[in-house]
């Protein structure tokens, strides 16, 4: 299990957006690079989130055979922060470095993958489209190549992708095949296919060239987003081997006129503009574009500077604000994703401009919004029942399913059939011993097992009924044990009412009198119990433990 981590969490000053979250953001721990159950160091990968998981796709490393592509997809549960490598059903390309992805719908479990490069950068680029869907219950992804008509972009890598003005419209911007750099903008359109006979034919796909952005230099490793207010695309940074582009002005593509122009932005009042860069990343939340890291260099790779700063671009007025905290280490070729709550996650990347530059597999968190109560509740459960949040089974736990699994792990007795289905949903066999120790085996590794020792849960303290009797009885004793006097007082009162009735000629027979006496005793007990409850509740309010 890894800790929730954040950059410089202990240095946060009072802030309405982040500092109050420090109670559950703690410094990150060292991750062993040899851990088979954690992604290895890499760069050029892509990330996305569906609010239940953070997904990591592909990437490049120089540590294996002088350079290798990771043809894999990992998922990390946002409930337990444990990773699992997913099985791939179908085909994934070999060109999973500096490719681009876009989710079909915001926070969906399906995405489109386009382009990318293999290890032979400049000679192994791709222009293929893939449709990939995630199946969390079975810990796998299904992928197949799309048949796309129209003007297909040339093979490239280092391009950007973003969603467009309507669902099913996506844009591909810029990129390189290794030696030349373009600034082309293509639109990919998804439409429902009424004649579909298979799942793969559910949609039709068409691509068209929108503009080549003549007059602006080509660029790769840029970022892009759609501006809903002005119906345009905004392009951030990027560059080539000879230059990188800054942010005093950004390029805007009007989607009505299909004309691009440079528009001025407003600097931060104290820090000015971000320095020019490429290989940075952005995460979009509402009207804020959060930019992290990247690399600056002059012609021929001189004056290289890798960035660790974080900037926020406000789309309502095109203004820049430098975030008060930075990444722990300068990085580029990394990637980031952000949840609807505003939890941004940054993973991996490189630290130097060399072929064998050191890379990392660290994961950083930062909050740019206020979490839901569920998030705080999860952290409380994590601290109270750590055994529930460790082990490879937990890698398949979704935040929305924590209550089900909590009930499974944290109660005595055998696992019911319903609970067994919850556990086996990820195809993970388990065994249960008489002492309720449970062993969950990882389906991908026969030699890995996690033991969960289930303790009896602590009894709940109820507001009424079961109380800490010793304390309240002591209070009653200190007040002279009022139960006896109360019983005599109410008995005399109720008997007096009966005597009056007898004097009116409505006396009771012997059997009826005995029944009424029993009813009086029950009424007295009920009244006394109610009084004790009132006293106990008042004691709780005035003298809480």
From TrEMBL:
It comes from the Eukaryota. The keyword Repeat applies. The keyword Repeat applies. Pfam families: Kelch_KLHDC2_KLHL20_DRC7 (PF24681). Keywords: Kelch repeat, Repeat. Transmembrane segments: none annotated. Residues 456-482, 497-516 are annotated as: Disordered. PANTHER family: KELCH DOMAIN-CONTAINING PROTEIN 10. This is Uncharacterized protein.
């Amino acid at each position: 299990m890894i800790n929730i981590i954040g950059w410089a969490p202990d240095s946060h000053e009072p802030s309405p957006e982040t500092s109050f979250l420090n109670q559950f953001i703690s410094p990150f721990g060292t991750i062993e690079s040899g851990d088979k159950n954690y992604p290895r160091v890499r760069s050029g990968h892509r990330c996305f989130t569906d609010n239940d998981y953070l997904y990591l796709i592909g990437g490049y490393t120089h540590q294996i055979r002088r350079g290798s592509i990771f043809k894999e997809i990992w998922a990390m549960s946002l409930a337990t922060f444990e990773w699992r490598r997913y099985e791939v059903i179908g085909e994934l390309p070999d060109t999973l470095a500096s490719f681009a992805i876009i989710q079909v719908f915001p926070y969906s479990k399906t995405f489109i993958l386009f382009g990318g490069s293999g290890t032979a950068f400049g000679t192994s680029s791709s222009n293929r489209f893939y449709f990939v869907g995630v199946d969390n219950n079975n810990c796998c992804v299904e992928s197949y190549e799309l048949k796309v008509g129209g003007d297909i972009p040339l093979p490239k890598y280092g391009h950007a992708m973003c969603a467009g003005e309507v669902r099913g419209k996506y844009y591909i911007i810029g990129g390189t095949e290794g030696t030349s750099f373009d600034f082309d903008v293509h639109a990919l359109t998804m439409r429902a296919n009424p004649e579909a006979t298979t799942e793969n034919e559910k949609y039709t796909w068409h691509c068209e060239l929108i503009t080549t952005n003549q007059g602006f230099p080509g660029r790769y490793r840029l970022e892009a987003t759609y501006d809903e207010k002005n119906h345009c695309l905004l392009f951030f940074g990027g560059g080539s081997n000879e230059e990188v582009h800054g942010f005093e002005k950004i390029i805007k593509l009007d989607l009505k006129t299909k004309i691009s122009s440079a528009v001025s932005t407003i600097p931060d009042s104290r820090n000015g503009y971000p320095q020019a860069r490429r290989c940075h990343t952005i995460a979009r939340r509402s009207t804020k574009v959060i930019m992290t890291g990247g690399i600056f260099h002059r012609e021929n790779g001189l004056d290289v500077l890798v960035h660790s700063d974080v900037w926020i671009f406000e789309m309502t007025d095109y203004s820049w604000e430098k975030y008060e905290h930075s990444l722990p280490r300068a990085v580029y070729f990394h990637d980031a994703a952000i949840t609807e709550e505003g939890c941004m996650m940054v993973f991996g990347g490189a630290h130097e401009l060399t072929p064998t530059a050191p890379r990392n597999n660290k994961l950083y968190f930062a909050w740019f919004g206020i979490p839901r109560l569920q998030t705080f509740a999860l952290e409380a459960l994590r601290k109270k029942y750590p055994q529930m949040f460790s082990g490879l089974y937990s890698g398949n736990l979704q935040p929305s399913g924590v209550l089900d699994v909590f009930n499974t792990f944290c109660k005595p007795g055998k696992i019911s059939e319903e609970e067994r289905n919850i556990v086996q949903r990820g195809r993970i066999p388990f065994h249960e011993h008489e002492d309720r120790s449970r062993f969950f085996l990882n389906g991908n590794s026969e030699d890995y097992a996690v033991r969960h020792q289930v303790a009896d849960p602590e009894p709940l303290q109820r507001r009424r009924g079961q109380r800490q009797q010793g304390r309240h009885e002591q209070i009653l004793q200190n007040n002279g044990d009022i139960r006896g006097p109360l019983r005599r007082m109410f008995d005399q009162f109720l008997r007096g009412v009966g005597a009056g009735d007898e004097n009116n000629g409505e006396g009771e027979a012997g059997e009826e009198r005995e029944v009424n006496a029993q009813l009086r005793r029950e009424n007295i007990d009920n009244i006394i119990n109610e009084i004790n409850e009132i006293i106990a509740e008042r004691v709780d309010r005035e003298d809480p433990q």
